[in-house]
Amino acid sequence: MSAVLGMRVVEGGRGRAPAFLPADLRADPSSGLYQGLYKRLRSFILDGVWPPGTRLPSSRALAADLKVSRNTAILAVEQLIADGWAESRSRSGVYVSTSPAATLDEGLFHRCTAPAELPPLALQRPATDLFPAQIWKQLQTAAWAQIEPHRLLTADPAGDPALRDVIARLVCAPRGLRCHPDQIIIVSSAALAIDLIAATLIRPGDRVVVEDPCRPALRQLLRSRGARLCSLPVDGEGLDTGRLGDDAADARMACVAPFAQFPTGAPMSPPRRETLLGWADQADAWIIEDDRDSDAWVGPDEPPLPIAVQAPDRTILVGSFNRLLFPGLCVAFLVAPPEIAERLRAAHATMGARASLAAQIALHGFIAEGYLTRHLRRRRTAYAERRQLLTELVDGRVIAGNGLHLVLPVQPGTAPMLAAALAEERLGGVDLDHFSETRRSGDRLLLGLGATPDQLRACAPRLLPILANVTRESDR
């Protein structure tokens, strides 16, 4: 809408929103002067530029900005009031009317529709009901209160020093990873962290090992940096490292998720970890360790240590708070070996992709004051309960694994049909082969766990018949 572009703030208001004068606010020359101004003002109300409850510019501001007499501006505003488009409030000003006369005719308004809620079983649906929003709101407000203007210009491109320090002490150290804050670089997402690493450490034509299946965006990102991908299969023990020597002897890098491989949820077994490390030493290659879902361990034993603990000079660990807290946070980090930390810092300062300073300061408080630890404890318990609930709803037919979704084995050839039927019912769920280039992942369906227990129970009457009906159809 052209009227929205180039708005000029003319005065503050005590109403729902400040008053704006759109840059193309001009009287209609085909009408009388005040009638032309009236029509233009009314059009901004009809178009939603000034939504109900917005304080209008004063007649004095209108007259000065449009180079008309104040009487002309007063007549135009009074006409708006007389026709029910605006209302005068004593000692406050004139506001866009909230009465039915101005708002009932929906056809006159170009309303923005909020995006529909993600389906209950969607993989990308976060468990937002678990996030302590009120605490975060207070921390965010406090963060902006302490930011002096000069900090916006002098902020360290590698990230707020206090946040990097608290990540080193309270996020990495408890998991066995000892690192200096200078080894940590703050970025806005895990994908951008991997992009930074690829841009710095590989050259066009270099081979990079990836898991199959994996996120399509990861393959696209690495190819955009000129990498030639070597896709190795994943099974119940994680990446098939036995094929590294034959298929990837000359690779310069491997991108793995050893804690909870996405999307299978399989953890990499200790023998395969050792094989991966041996290959990296022999090939003089880097390991990018995607630490996603490291808090969602569901095995009977203690969770394994990060590979970066075993090989700190060979591994770059990538973590993200966006999946832990909420996607719009846009704060992630990488922990680089000291040997390449400065190279990555310099590249990051050039490439950008920096996280919001206010978000970093608020996150520092969230971690330092113990809120993150409490949130992760609550989150781990809640996801375990939801995993158990959904497992029971599908009669226990679940492959054991980690992560924030279930992996459900289905009859051969039915996974695509099931995913399509679930999509039609707005339930969510994805065929595992959606993430595989070779389509050799097997017949498995992925069901997200981000919905509340009540929402999961509510979708059961639609989910279970789909699972049963598709299975029966495949048997015929």
What attributes characterize this protein structure?
476 residues, alpha/beta, Arc Repressor Mutant, subunit A, Aspartate Aminotransferase, domain 2, Aspartate Aminotransferase, domain 1, 3 domains, 3-stranded antiparallel sheet, 14% strand, globular, disordered N terminus
Total domain count: 3
Q: What number is the mean pLDDT?
A: 85
For the sheet with most strands, the description reads: 8 strands, mixed
Contiguous runs where pLDDT drops below 50 for at least 5 residues: 1-19, 100-115
Strand order of the largest sheet: 5-12-11-10-9-6-7-8
Shape: globular
Annotate the secondary structure layout:
Blueprint: E1 8-11, E2 19-21, H1 33-46, H2 59-66, H3 70-82, E3 86-89, E4 93-96, H4 100-103, H5 133-146, H6 149-154, H7 161-172, E5 184-187, H8 190-201, E6 207-212, H9 216-224, E7 228-235, E8 238-239, H10 244-247, E9 253-256, H11 270-283, E10 286-290, H12 307-310, E11 315-320, E12 332-335, H13 338-351, H14 357-368, H15 371-393, E13 405-409, H16 415-424, E14 430-431, E15 444-448, H17 453-475
Parallel strand pairs: 6-7, 6-9, 9-10, 10-11
Antiparallel strand pairs: 1-2, 3-4, 5-12, 7-8, 11-12, 13-15, 14-15
Helix pairs in contact: 1-3, 2-3, 5-14, 7-14, 8-9, 8-13, 15-17, 16-17
